[in-house]
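Task card 7
Instruction: Convert sequence to structure tokens.
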Amino acid sequence: MDLHRLDHVPPELLTTPVEELDNVLPGPTLLHIPGRAEPPLFISTLLHGDEPTGFQSMQRLLTQYLGSPEGLPRSVWLFLGNVHAAKGNLRHLDQQPDFNRIWNGGDRPEHRLAARVVTMARENGLFACIDIHNTSGKNPPYSAINKLDPACVFLGKLFSDKLVYFTRPDTVLSKAFAEICPAVTVECGQAGDPKGLERVHGFVDQCLNLAAIVPTGYRTADESVYHSIGRIEFPDGCTVGFDHSGGQEDFVFVENLDSLNFQELPENTRIGWRHDAGKRLVVIDETGKEVGDEFFVYKGDEIRLKRAVVPSMLTTRPDAALDDCLGYLMQRYVLE
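Output:
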């Protein structure tokens, strides 16, 4: 798999629908777009082909700035990831790895492509890194950081008052770039939500116009900061459904499960049912240890919480749940 590099913006890129992007670009592409200030702002989008908001916001911003005499306020490196999956509105193609799980080494062509991008970023230096995503379930817009650095916190808070600190999975783009420059992942809600598009458009515009990243401090008791402590996965070969009425899959979850995202859930909250007593939900903590029995208890066929948690990224799409995860479990976090 080749990394395609461009030092200009093809005019058709600004008007092409995301599902037709592979008619313009041959594959993963890094565009070097000059601006008035250096070093460049690195912006990544379409790591998942079914998350178009980042690309659509960049079309608007580039149209706005490249059509003016002054051009971009700051140079941009724009990485457009899985353009082939975008054609089918898919997270990734069947034969591909997840493009946001390739940034910590590996022997596939996609891993080597990611390593090349990181090497170029390290050798050239960056102002900051923004990785733009949508969520498959209902979530408020929020930021996620992988390093408790004041500059990363500043960027996260610039996008949303809700900030999540996580270290796993450790194969995401933002974690690799956090070793090079201030880096943040922004989750813009579900694809097609105009509010998410407006929010990320305004955020990237702000970042382009920052002269410097100067953290202004933050409250240590900020109640909108969370620490991701567990990722909910499934045992191999199981089936998953949503809405208990009549569902007989191995695991069936309450209707509108994603409405629980970023809600304080008390101990003993019922989240679903299981129809195969031999299977249990898997929870992977930050050390990579399986800790499902610390979070879930099974009462008859009911699945209930064993402790109070705040979930995020809970999905109601079986394909997303089985391909990636059901969601994450968080707790409040006090910034030092």
